[in-house]
Amino acid sequence: MNGADVLCDTLLAGDVDVCFANPGTSEMHFVAALDRKPAMRCVLGLFEGVVTGAADGYARMADKPAATLLHLGPGLANGLANLHNARRAGSPVVNIVGEHATYHLPFDAPLTSDIESLARPMSAWVGRIGHSDEVGERAAQAIAASRVNGGGVATLILPADAAWGETSRTSPVAQTPTSEGIPDDPILREVATRLRNGRRTLLLLSGHALRADALTVAGRIAQATGARMLAQQSNARIERGAGRVPIERVLYNIDACTADLADVEQVVLIGAKAPVGFFAYPGKPSDMLPPGCEVVRYTTRGHDALASLQALAEALGVTPDAAVTLAKPTPPERPTGALTPASIAASVGRHLPEGAIVCDEAITSGHAFFKLTSGAAPHDFLALTGGAIGAGLPMGTGAAVACPHRKVVCLQADGSGMFTLQALWTQARERLDVVTILFANRGYAILHNELKQVGAGEAGHNARRMLDVVDPTLDWVKLAAGMGVEAVFVDTIARFDDVFALAMRRPGPFLIEARI
Amino acid sequence: MNGADVLCDTLLAGDVDVCFANPGTSEMHFVAALDRKPAMRCVLGLFEGVVTGAADGYARMADKPAATLLHLGPGLANGLANLHNARRAGSPVVNIVGEHATYHLPFDAPLTSDIESLARPMSAWVGRIGHSDEVGERAAQAIAASRVNGGGVATLILPADAAWGETSRTSPVAQTPTSEGIPDDPILREVATRLRNGRRTLLLLSGHALRADALTVAGRIAQATGARMLAQQSNARIERGAGRVPIERVLYNIDACTADLADVEQVVLIGAKAPVGFFAYPGKPSDMLPPGCEVVRYTTRGHDALASLQALAEALGVTPDAAVTLAKPTPPERPTGALTPASIAASVGRHLPEGAIVCDEAITSGHAFFKLTSGAAPHDFLALTGGAIGAGLPMGTGAAVACPHRKVVCLQADGSGMFTLQALWTQARERLDVVTILFANRGYAILHNELKQVGAGEAGHNARRMLDVVDPTLDWVKLAAGMGVEAVFVDTIARFDDVFALAMRRPGPFLIEARI
Predict the structure, then answer these.
(1) Where would I find the Thiamine pyrophosphate enzyme TPP-binding domain in this sequence (chains A, B) (predicted)?
(2) Quick check: A35 contacting B, CB < 8 Å?
(3) I need a labelling partner for A19 at 20 to 30 A (CA). Which of A48, B240, B330, B363 fits?
(4) Can you give B121-156 as a three-state secondary structure string?
(5) Do A100 and B279 touch (CB under 8 A)?
(6) What gap in Å lies between CA B434 and CA B397, rounded to an integer?
C-alpha cells in the first residue's frame, strides 16, 4: 500500500468523501489512488478557484469538510481567494496540495515555490508530510484541524514520493469533530446579568447561531429582554424565510451603519465579530459602534450555538414557550414595472421552493433580495464572507453537490461572476440543480459608488476604462452555452418571472442573464 | 498632491506607462490618480491572472516593466500563478497591491490578509509603504528592484491612507535600469579555456542570450569550438526563424532528455540553469546531466548577454565574420492529411508574417511547432516558463499591448486555456491583433501521459473524471463570442489553412478552435 492509498482511506474514515480537484503531474499517484476508491466522489473544476469555492459551499451545507486536490504552489495560489472566503466563513476544508518529491526540491524545478508561505494566510493549519509513513497521521491531523473552532481551512502538503512510497503504517486514523460545548459559567452569568441591566443591548449573531433552531432561541431571548438582534454583515449561512425568526444584517455603508448602531450601549457577541468597516474611508471610523459601547463575547464559533443559547435562555428564565415573532409569508404577487434588483427579488421570493439554497454574490444588486424575501419559503442564504470576489458560482456548485435534492439559486453579479465562470462547466458535468441569476449591470457598479465614497470624485476616462465592463459587453448566454449550461437573456420583469418560474420547476443547471 | 499622484508620477518617470489593472475599493484613490494621467495606459483584466500574465507578456516584449493594480491579498493571490511564470521568465513587473488604511488593519476587516506572505514566494522584492511621504521613494525602489538581475517581480503594498494622504515630497525619483555588464576576467578565461579543452561541451543558453544578435555570436562560438548549443527547456523569449541561428531546447521527457545529454562532459551556462527534471518520477534522476559532468556558469541573467558573448568570442579568437549556420526558409507547402498539431504547425509556419510573436501554451500540442518552424519567417517565441498554466492568453494579450504593430499568435491548449479565458475580453476591448489557435483535444492530455510516467497505470473512472474535459465538451466559439472575440471551429487541415491564412491578413482578435 502506498501513501496515496493511506491518504484516501484516512479521508474516507474521517467522513471526507467528496474531493473537488484540479490535479497535475505531482498528484498522479493520488489520482490513481482515488481511482481505486469508488466511495470518493471526485468533482473536477477547470480552475482552482472553482475547486476551493465549491469546497466552501459544500462545507456550509454539509457541515463537514470536502477535500480539495491542488497542483503545487501555483494551483494552491489560484484557489486562495475562495479559501479566504472559506476562512472567513469558518468552513471546514481539507486541502491536499501536491508537491515535488522531497529529494527533487533542492533542484528548484520550474514549478517549485514556497507553498507554506502561500498557504498560511488563508489556513488555520498547514502541515507537510515528510515520508509515506507519516501520511495517515498527518492526514488525520488535517481533518481534525479543519473542525476546530467550528471549522477552518487545513492545508496538507503531499510530496510526490510520500504519495508513491510504500508504507506499512496503513491504519487510517478516524477523527471525531471537536466542539467546545457551551461557555463557562462566569461568562454565562455575566451575559445574563447584562441582558437584564436595562441598557440598550445588541445581540450580534453569526455562525451556527443563525440556524433556524438557534435563531428561535435567540429570538425568544431578544424579545423577552428587549434586546435588538442582528446578524453579522456577512455570514456563511442563515436559515430564514416564512415561519422562521427573521433577522437583519449589520449594514455595509459606513454612514448608515454607524447611524443605525448609534444608540447601542452594549453588544453581546454570539459567534460574531464586533462590527467594523468593510473598508476604511477618509475621516470615517473603523469601529462601527458608538464611543463607550461595551462589547462582551458570549460564544465563539467553536461553541455549540444552540446549546449555548438554550443555557442562556434558561439562566434568564426564558422558557421554550416564550413569545417570538416569526416571519409571515409574503403574498405571492407578480411583480410589475422595470427589471430591477428589487423586482427580480420579488419574483425570486414568490417562486423559491421550500428548502432552496440561495448563494449571494450579487454585490450591489443583492441588497434588495435580503430585505424582500424574509417571507419567502424557508431557505438557506449563503453570502460572500471574505469579500474575495468569484465566490458565488463555485459556492452554488459545492452547495448543490452537498444537497442534491435541494434547489440552488445563485444571485450573481456579472463583474464578480467572470472571476470563476468556469464553475458553470462543473455544474453541467455534474448535472447540478443550480439556477444562476446573472445581474448584468455591465460594470463594477460598487466601485463607482466607492470612488465617490472615498472622495475621489466622478470617473474619468482611465477610471471608466477600469470600472465599466462594456465595449464589448459580455454575452452570458453564449458563455454559459460554451460550457454546456442552457441560458436565456431577459430584459423585462414579465419575462424574468415566467422564465424563473419555469426554472424552479425543472432540474438545472440553468442561467438567466437579467439586463438591469 | 496625494500619495496616489506621486505613485503615478514616479511610475511614469521610471518609464512605466502601462498599468494592467483589476482594482477594488482600497485602490480608488490610485484609480482617481490614474484618471489624471493620460500618459498612463490602463488596461482592464476581468480576472487578476489576466492582469499579471499580461504584464509578463508585455515585459518580455517591451524589455521594461508594466505596473499591475491588484486588490488586496485575494486580488494578488489570483494573480500569483502568472507572477510565478513571470518570476521564472525573469520578467520585470511592478505590482501595486492595494491594502487597507494602516489604522484599519488591526480591525481585521473581512478582506484583511497577510499580503507579504502571499507575495514573497513569487516576488524578488516586497515592500510596504508606511505613509504618503514614503510613496515616491518606495515606488522608485520597486521599479529599480524589478530591473535587477535582468528582471524580476517587485511587489509594492499601498495602504489606502498612503494613497489618499497629502504629501509635500512630490519629486518622483527616476530610475536607471541596472546591468551587471560582462563577467569578471577570471571567469571569462576559465570558460574560454574550457571551450578549447577538447571535451564534449554544451553551451546552455537562456534569457537575452536567445535574442538574435546574441544567438549569432553564440552560434559562431559553438561552431568554431565544436560545442553543442541548446536553449533551456522553457524560455521567456527566443528570436528565431529563417535567417537566424537555430537552436533546439532541452527535452521535457526525462528519458529522452538524459539520453540526449548522455555524452556531455561539461556545460557552460549562459543565463541558463542546469537542466533538471520538470517533475520527479519514481526511480528516475532529478539531474539531467550524466555523472561527472562539470557545470560552469559564464553569465547570469543580470549580465549583458550580447556583450558577454562578444567578449568570449574575442577571447577565443572567433571573429565577427566566423562561419555560422543559419536556418533556411521552409518551403511554403500546403499541409495535407489529418488536422494534427504537426499539420497545424506546418500551416502556421507557412503563413506566419515576419515579426510575429508566438505565445506557446499548447502543452502536448505544442511540441511539434518548435521543430517544424525553425525556417518560418523571423518571429519571437514566448513559452510557459514556470509551468503554472493559464499563461498563454494573458501573455499574448500583454505582448500585443507592447507591440501593437506585430501579429501575435497564441498556441493554446484547451485545458490550460480555461484557466484565464477572460483574457479574450481584454483582447476585444483593446482591439489587440491576437490570433489564438485553440487546440481542442478535450482533456488534460499531458496528465494521461504523466499517469503512465509515474507508473500509476491507466486511468479508471475517477481518474478519467479528473483528466478528461468532456461531458460536456467546451464550445470555444461560443466562449470567445461571449467575450466579443470572433471565432470559428475547424476540423480539417484544409479549412484550418484557409482560415489561418485569412486571420494573418486581417487585424484581430480572432480565435480558431481546432479539433485535434
Answers:
(1) 384-513
(2) yes
(3) B363
(4) HHCCEEEECCCHHHHHHHHHHHHHHCCHHHCCEEEE
(5) yes
(6) 7
CB contact under 8 A, B469 and A110: no
Q: Provide the grid cell at A213.
A: 433552531
> What residue type is B182 in one-letter code?
I
Q: How far apart are CA A474 and CA A513, in angstroms?
A: 10
Segment 254-283 of chain B within 8 Å of chain A by CB? 273, 276-280, 282
The shortest C-alpha distance from A319 to chain B (Å) reads 36
Give me the count of residues in chain A. Answer: 516
Nearest CA in chain B to A84: B74
Query: Does A472 sit within 8 Å of B484, measured CB to CB?
Result: yes
Q: Residue B277: what residue type?
A: G
Closest-approach residue (CA) in chain A for B40:
A462
- SS3 of residue A64 by DSSP: coil
Cross-chain Cβ contact B479/A482 below 8 Å: yes
Cis, peptide link before residue B509, omega less than 30° from 0 = yes
- Dump strand ranges (E) for B289-366: 294-299, 356-361
**DSSP codes joined into one string, A242-299:** TTS---EE--SSHHHHHHHTTT--EEEEES----B-SS--TT--SB-SPTT-EEEEEE
Dist. CA A123–CA A179, nearest whole Å: 19
A77 touches chain B (CB under 8 A): yes
**Cβ distance B54 to B28 under 8 Å?**
no
**E strands in A80-179:** 93-99, 125-128, 153-159
The verdict on a CB contact (< 8 Å) between A107 and B286 is yes
Tell me whether A328 touches chain B (CB under 8 Å). no
Chain A with chain B: Cβ pairs closer than 8 A: 342
Q: Which conformational region is residue A416 in: left (phi greater than 0), alpha (psi within -120 to 50 degrees), or beta? A: alpha
Q: List the single best residue of A425, A426, A454 to mutate versus B (max B Cβ within 10 A).
A: A454
Contact A160 B280 (CB under 8 A): yes
How many angstroms away from the CA of A320 is the closest CA of chain B? Answer: 35
**A220/A309 Cα distance (integer angstroms):** 10
CA distance B15 to B64: 8
Cα(A356)–Cα(A239) distance, integer angstroms: 10
Residues 6+ apart with CB under 8 A from B314: none
Q: Please list the pLDDT of chain B residue by residue as tens digits (516 residues).
A: 999 999 999 999 999 999 999 999 888 999 999 989 999 999 999 999 999 999 999 999 999 999 999 999 999 999 999 999 999 999 999 999 999 999 999 999 999 999 999 999 999 999 999 999 999 999 999 999 999 999 999 999 999 999 999 999 887 776 676 678 999 999 999 999 999 999 999 999 999 999 999 999 999 999 999 999 999 999 999 999 999 999 999 999 999 999 999 999 999 999 999 999 999 999 999 999 999 999 999 999 999 999 999 999 999 999 999 999 999 998 878 999 999 999 999 999 999 999 999 999 998 888 889 999 999 999 999 999 999 999 999 999 999 999 999 999 999 999 999 999 999 999 999 999 999 999 999 888 888 888 887 777 778 888 898 899 989 999 999 999 999 999 999 999 999 999 999 999 999 899 999 999
Min Cα–Cα distance to chain B from A18, Å: 11
Question: Is A291 touching B (CB cutoff 8 A)?
Answer: no
The answer to whether residues B50 and B106 touch, using CB atoms and an 8 Å cutoff, is: no
Which residues in chain B have Cβ-Cβ distances shorter than 8 Å to A466?
21-23, 31, 34, 42, 44, 69
pTM of the full structure = 0.98
Pairwise CA distance, residues B126 & B133, whole Å:
18
Is A418 in Cβ contact with B47 (below 8 Å)?
yes
Contacts with A456 from chain B: Cβ below 8 Å:
28-29, 31-32, 164
